[in-house]
């Protein structure tokens, strides 16, 4: 496995073993991918899902990393990559009648957030109505009505 070369304009935060289903976390992540830092925080505060709080903390942590480690301004950050991977499944036994037991499975997930500094080409970003130009090529967005989903 090759190591990926780190970019000078990208900052990341990784949350591991978050006690939540991958599908529930992806439902929220798909809404914030490609948006600015401030817009992402507003969306996460107003969404009614339980998955929003750990993602909010990760976005906030990645922005703090950007400010402290690289000296980036928070206004110039966009959510460049956001991915959710399946973690391990915690298993517990629940005692039942007549000495039996039932297995309880609690899924976990790993969430990776990458923020990118766009101050070098901020003027270009503000003039374009379409934010697809700055997303990775495999995340081209297509409108299918009210929500955005991957191609």
UniProtKB/TrEMBL annotation:
Keyword annotations for this protein? Chloroplast, Plastid, Ribonucleoprotein, Ribosomal protein, RNA-binding, rRNA-binding
- Can you provide one Gene Ontology molecular function annotated for this UniProt record? structural constituent of ribosome
- What are its GO biological-process terms? translation
Function per UniProt: The globular domain of the protein is located near the polypeptide exit tunnel on the outside of the subunit, while an extended beta-hairpin is found that lines the wall of the exit tunnel in the center of the 70S ribosome. This protein binds specifically to 23S rRNA.
Q: How does it assemble?
A: Part of the 50S ribosomal subunit.
Query: What gene name does this entry carry?
Result: rpl22
Output the superkingdom of the source species: Eukaryota
User: What family name appears in the similarity comment?
Assistant: Belongs to the universal ribosomal protein uL22 family.
User: What SUPFAM superfamilies is this protein classified in?
Assistant: Ribosomal protein L22
Report the Pfam families cross-referenced here.
Answer: Ribosomal_L22
Name the record gives this protein: Large ribosomal subunit protein uL22c
Gene Ontology CC terms: chloroplast; large ribosomal subunit
Compartments annotated for it: namely: Plastid, Chloroplast
